[in-house]
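Data follows
____________
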Amino acid sequence: MKSSIENIYKLKVNQIIDYIKFNLHQPLQLNVIADIVNMSQRQLLCMMSSVLNEPLYPYVARQHVERSVLYMQTEDMSLQNLIGLVGYDNP
């Protein structure tokens, strides 16, 4: 039984990570993410902290920075364009 619960959590975590990756350019709302995986916001935050070994919000912030670094290394674009691609409102 424990194994099936772990598998469900892994699937949900993968769904959340994919959602974050594909929607990093726009504001991410906890209630929307929780609805996608059919969990309460609190359950989602606890699960993600447990699986990622860091809270959800720092994880998302790190994803923003990593995506920014990737774009800076591979693309020739203005800072203004870069900011829009990674979901920041201003430089």
